[in-house]
Amino acid sequence: MTWRSATVIGLRDETATARTIALTVRDWPSHIAGQHIDVRLTAPDGYSAVRSYSLASAPNSDERIEITVERLANGEVSPYLTKELLVGDDLELRGPIGGWFVWRRDQTEPIQLVAGGSGIVPLMAMIRSHASVGSTAPFRFLYSVREPGAVFYRDELRALSAQGHSLIVTYAYTRVAPKDSPRPPGRIDATLIATGTWPSNLGPTSYVCGPTSFVEHTTDLLIASGHDRERIKTERFGATGERK
Amino acid sequence: MSAPMNYLDGNAAAGELGRIFAMDITSAEGQCTNCGSKSRFAEAHLYVQCPGLVARCALCGHILLRLVNTQQHIFLDLRGMTYLTLNTTQEQEASS
């Protein structure tokens, strides 16, 4: 797998700290929803840093991809990507990467998505892929987020869940909930798993993405409510510290 | 084994392993040499806060793989897996 050159063709703020970067990549072979890319930044002295970012966009044949990057306070790469990168700049990347945490368009079983914070990104690629091919696989999405202002893709999620694309979205606010929220702020718990996810007897495949502790907690709750561990796919995130 | 929660999934090694292998190793099933459990490499626990990558069995914590990059070489230690089974029916899909 070789490094490719990509050009920034669009920038869009999702929240105060997260930005979507649209790129065009020559000879991009398309991807499967859930896959990621590695981005490499190289300093003039040759020092380089590589980070993995999930693809947010649905597979397409336009050689166009999107990633959404959350700015980390002490990050080495994310501050540059979210604050300094401009339309027209070039980025080095490789991918698409990974064949496990993916949703394929021929999957027809019910799908349960669970995201913690920016863990929504690969799941959004699945939601967009599902909508773009008109899949009838029933999708449910439980989205745990700190506060209303931290929600990514809010309008698009609302539109997709209203359009009969067989998508149900449940929000779990952990710190601050909007006034009309049916539930006080708090972590995902057994009650929310019972009311906000597919029952295990429907045999759903689940995709859980977020920080490691979130993934552990949520996976344990899903298993306790009867879900088959074999049908739960997880993606934990953190800095992938490849240094050269 | 009780390790601190600072690991990722084996998925995260897919880029580095993709430099070496033509097929996606992270969706392959491997068997741990220590406990004998079989699981997808993507489900292993991956530690990246070190001079390379270390993948450990999600069940027993045994080291499955170590990968270190230097300027001139890649060091790959696969001692922790007795074998890998690769699925040849699900290669990359063509886009629509």
Question: What can you see in these coordinates?
Answer:
- The complex is a heterodimer of chains A (244) and B (96).
- Chain A is α/β, with parallel strands linked by helices.
- Chain A has five helices and twelve strands.
- Chain A has helices spanning 78-84, 120-132, 154-162, 190-196, 212-224; strands at residues 4-13, 18-25, 36-42, 48-54, 64-70, 90-97, 111-116, 139-145, 167-173, 205-211, 232-237, 242-243.
- In chain A, strand 7 (111-116), helix 2 (120-132) and strand 8 form a beta-alpha-beta unit.
- Chain A is globular and about 55 Å long.
- Chain B has 96 residues and is mainly β.
- Chain B has one domain.
- Chain B is 5% helix and 34% strand.
- Chain B has one helix and eight strands, in the order E-H-E-E-E-E-E-E-E.
- In chain B, the strands form two sheets. A five-stranded antiparallel beta sheet of chain B has the order 1-4-5-6-7, with no helix packed on it. Chain B has a three-stranded antiparallel beta sheet with strand order 3-2-8, with no helix packed on it.
- The longest helix of chain B has 5 residues, at 14-18.
- The model of chain B has no long low-confidence stretch (mean pLDDT 87).
- The interface between A and B is large, with 40 and 33 residues.
Mean pLDDT over all positions of chain A = 93
Described by the principal axes of the CA atoms, the overall outline of chain B is globular
**What composes the largest sheet of chain A?**
7 strands, antiparallel
Relative helix content of chain B: under 10%
Number of helices of chain A: 5
**Overall pLDDT metric of chain B:** 87
Main β sheet profile of chain B: 5 strands, antiparallel
Quick overview:
With 244 residues, chain A is of the alpha/beta class. Helices cover 20% and strands 34% of the residues of chain A. Mean pLDDT of chain A is 93; it is low at 239-244.
What attributes characterize this protein structure?
heterodimer; A: 244 residues; alpha/beta; Rossmann fold; 2 domains; 7-stranded antiparallel β-sheet; 5-stranded parallel β-sheet; 34% strand; B: 96 residues; mainly beta
